[in-house]
From TrEMBL:
Reaction equations catalysed: 5-carboxyamino-1-(5-phospho-D-ribosyl)imidazole + H(+) = 5-amino-1-(5-phospho-D-ribosyl)imidazole-4-carboxylate
Family statement: Belongs to the AIR carboxylase family. Class I subfamily.
Source organism per UniProt: Roseobacter sinensis
Domain of life: Bacteria
Gene (UniProt): purE
Protein name: N5-carboxyaminoimidazole ribonucleotide mutase
Molecular function GO terms recorded: 5-(carboxyamino)imidazole ribonucleotide mutase activity; phosphoribosylaminoimidazole carboxylase activity
Gene3D superfamilies for the chain: 3.40.50.1970
Annotated EC: 5.4.99.18
Alphabetic keyword roster: Isomerase, Lyase, Purine biosynthesis
InterPro entries: PurE_ClassI, PurE_dom, PurE_prokaryotes
Positions contributing to substrate binding: 12, 15, 42
Pathway(s) it belongs to: Purine metabolism; IMP biosynthesis via de novo pathway; 5-amino-1-(5-phospho-D-ribosyl)imidazole-4-carboxylate from 5-amino-1-(5-phospho-D-ribosyl)imidazole (N5-CAIR route): step 2/2
Role description: Catalyzes the conversion of N5-carboxyaminoimidazole ribonucleotide (N5-CAIR) to 4-carboxy-5-aminoimidazole ribonucleotide (CAIR).
Length: 162
């Protein structure tokens, strides 16, 4: 089976409602992707294997979402040179600030491109992945520009009372 350019990984099944927003954007833009549950704490060997094989499998970008002690994006960035886009999942206890802080403050040398907390961050992760891939893909660049123009055109000039 051919490896798609984008891998979406998440720490738990419970993260999928958030990370599915990234998948929706990738679908809209016609970008093939795979999705996997890869937990830094519960399945560390799976994390290691995924990161070690990512380049040779042909992945180009990894979107990694997790909540709470959200170590998945940073640990994945430590295992692969591929760009890792981190999505902090909103949590009940601390509203996702815990996730954000766990992802954003990486040490020099191992960056994670950290998005906003929650579904907006996940959708933007899809768009960020698209922007990276569009650097080498003129057709995708055209689709991404059209997507952005359509969003812009959908915003009314005046607020409605409805
Ligand atoms: C993290 O713990 C996951 O990324 C998830 O956001 C959080 C809670 O996981 P579950 O207890 O819902 O499986 O590892």
């Amino acid at each position: 089976m051919t490896t798609p350019p984008v891998g979406i990984i998440m720490g738990s099944q419970s993260d999928w409602p958030t990370l599915s927003e990234a998948a929706k954007v990738l679908d809209d833009l016609g970008i093939p992707h795979e999705k996997r549950i890869v937990s830094a704490h519960r399945t560390p060997d799976r994390l290691w294997d995924y990161g070690r094989s990512a380049v040779e499998r042909g992945l180009k970008v990894i979107i990694a979402g997790a909540g709470g002690a959200a170590h998945l994006p940073g640990m994945m960035a430590s295992k692969t040179r591929l760009p890792v886009i981190g999505v902090p999942v909103q949590t009940k206890a601390l509203s996702g600030v815990d996730s954000l802080y766990s992802i954003v403050q990486m040490p020099k040398g191992y960056p994670v491109a950290t998005m906003a907390i929650g579904s907006a961050g996940a959708a933007n992760a899809g768009l960020m992945a698209a922007g990276i891939l569009a650097l080498q893909d003129a057709d995708l660049a055209t689709r991404l520009e059209a997507w952005r123009a359509a969003l812009s055109a959908s915003i009314p000039e005046e607020p409605s009372d409805d």
